[in-house]
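ok new one. same drill as before - C-alpha cells go in, u give me an amino acid for every spot. 101 of them this time. try not to just spam alanines like last time pls lmao
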C-alpha cells in the first residue's frame, strides 16, 4: 500500500479515533462484569470490537459528510450534530437489543 503524501484524510483519522474511543468505552462499561466473572473474556473482546467498529463508522461518516459541506459552516455543524446523534441513537438501540437477549 502506497501513500504518496503520508497523510490520512480527516475522515480516516476520525474513524480511527472513534474506533479507539468506542472500544475503550465498551471495555470500561463491561469491566466490572468481567472482573466479577459474569462476562467471559472472549465475549467482552467481541463486544468491544463491535462497538469500536460502530463508533469508528459513525465518526468517519460524520466527518466525511461534514467535509463535503466545507463551504457552509452552519450546515456542516448541523450535519455533524444530526449524523452523530443518529449514530449514537442506533448504537444505543443495538446495545439495548443485545442486553435483552
Amino acid at each position: 500500500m502506497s501513500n504518496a503524501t503520508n497523510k490520512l484524510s480527516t475522515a480516516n483519522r476520525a474513524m480511527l479515533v472513534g474506533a479507539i474511543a468506542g472500544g475503550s468505552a465498551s471495555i470500561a462499561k463491561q469491566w466490572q462484569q468481567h472482573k466479577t466473572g459474569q462476562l467471559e473474556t472472549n465475549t467482552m473482546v467481541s463486544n468491544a470490537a463491535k462497538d469500536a467498529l460502530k463508533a469508528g463508522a459513525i465518526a468517519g461518516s460524520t466527518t466525511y459528510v461534514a467535509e463535503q459541506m466545507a463551504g457552509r459552516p452552519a450546515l456542516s455543524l448541523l450535519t455533524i450534530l444530526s449524523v452523530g446523534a443518529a449514530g449514537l441513537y442506533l448504537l444505543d438501540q443495538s446495545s439495548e437489543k443485545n442486553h435483552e437477549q
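Residues 18 and 57 are 8 Å apart (CA to CA). and btw The mean pLDDT is 82.
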